[in-house]
Structures are given as C-alpha cells and as structure tokens.
Design brief:
This protein has 176 residues and is of the alpha/beta class. It contains seven helices and five strands, in the order E-H-E-H-H-E-H-E-H-H-E-H. The protein has a single domain, classed as P-loop containing nucleotide triphosphate hydrolases (Rossmann fold, 3-Layer(aba) Sandwich), CATH 3.40.50. Helices cover 43% and strands 17% of the residues. The site of magnesium ion has 6 residues, from helix 1 and helix 2.
Length: 176
C-alpha cells in the first residue's frame, strides 16, 4: 500500500455526484490505511470562504483556497479530496500546477437535464425562477475539463460503477 498523498479533484455541475462519490470513497481509502480529508464546496463556503459570493473573482478565490489547503494536506501524505463545482478551467489548471503531489482530476459528468431533474437541493428550480443568480449551468458558465484523469458519467452509471472507475485509475497509478 502506498503512503503517498494525492489530490482527488472532483469537478462538475451541482448535483452531478461529487459529494456522493467522495462519501463512497472515503471509507474505502481509510480501510486501505490512508489518511483522508474532504474539502466539500458547501462546507468550505461556510468556513474557509465565508462571505465570498459567486462572481468569477470570488469563485476563483474560493477555488484557490481549496487548492492551497488540498496541497498542504496531500504533500503530507493525506488523500485530499475536493468536491466543489470548480467551474473555471484556468483556476483548476492553476491548482494542478501548484500541487506538489499527484493531481487527479475527476470530471463528474451528467447532462444538465439529469441534474436539473434530480435537483437534490432545490437550487435549479430557484435558479430557473431567477431567485438565485449566477447559478452554474443555468446563468453562469461551466467549463468542462479538457484532459481529466478520469471521467464518470453519473447520468448512466451507478454510484458503484463511477467509484470503481476512479479506484481503478488510482490503483493503476499506485496511489492506493
Ligand atoms: N454514478 C453516480 N455517482 C454519484 N452520484 C450519483 C450517481 N448516480 C446517481 N447519483 C445521485 O446523484 C446525486 C448527486 O448529488 P450530490 O452528490 O450532492 O452532487 P454534488 O455534490 O455534485 O452537488 C445523488 O442523489 C446521487 O445518489
Ligand atoms: Mg456536493
């Protein structure tokens, strides 16, 4: 078993499955003897990034903070999982460049129609009604990764299938 830390960077629309996949994987990493931390977008915005909004500038600041903390953890042997929409390619790539550990970008892909139908937090309904402004996928951009290490299609795969794809990649790289 490897004692290497790495960053497992989930990116995708709200409701695509980032938090679900993180929760599924965390106990498996722990069983494999890894130290794990999760930087979940919603939780970070309540703490580390409290007060930030959803302009491009504030979103970038939020993601840079997540990238900074993830790197501190990963270079000390922790599996640092990030689960934030992280809609902008340039900032994700900047986090990748600054990382001292392996950076594994997972594109959690699902069609807008699927995540809107799920509407796990009722936010798409509010975004469509104009109650929430600057909502990713509706009234704010999402830039797909051009070269992610793993792509999962949660509109058509089960949680287990998506998680196994990620584990297979990590095992292949000797990271778990
Ligand atoms: N393959 C899959 N991977 C992850 N989530 C899935 C998958 N298939 C269906 N889902 C469902 O999609 C929803 C994703 O919600 P969530 O994880 O909160 O999204 P996010 O954290 O990206 O906003 C959950 O209800 C989950 O059960
Ligand atoms: Mg989430």
């Amino acid at each position: 078993m490897s004692d290497k830390g790495f960053i497992l960077w989930f990116t995708g629309l709200s409701g695509s499955g980032k938090s679900t996949l993180a929760s599924y994987l965390i106990p498996l990493f722990k069983e494999a003897g890894k130290k794990v931390e999760l930087l979940d977008g919603d939780e970070v915005r309540e703490n580390l990034s409290k007060g930030l909004g959803f302009s491009k500038e504030d979103r970038d600041t939020n993601i840079r903070r997540i990238g900074f903390v993830a790197d501190l953890l990963a270079r000390n042997g922790v599996v640092a999982i990030t689960a934030a929409i992280s809609p902008y390619r340039d900032i994700r790539d900047e986090c990748r460049k600054k990382s001292h550990a392996a950076f594994v970008e997972v594109y959690v892909e699902a069609p807008l129609a699927v995540v809107e139908e799920r509407d796990t937090k009722g936010l798409y309904k509010k975004a469509r009604a104009g109650i929430i402004k600057q909502f990713t996928g509706i009234s704010d951009p999402y830039e797909e990764p051009t070269n992610p290490e793993v792509v999962v299609h949660t509109g058509s795969e089960s949680i287990e299938e998506s998680a196994q794809k990620i584990l297979k990649y990590l095992k292949g790289k000797g990271l778990v």
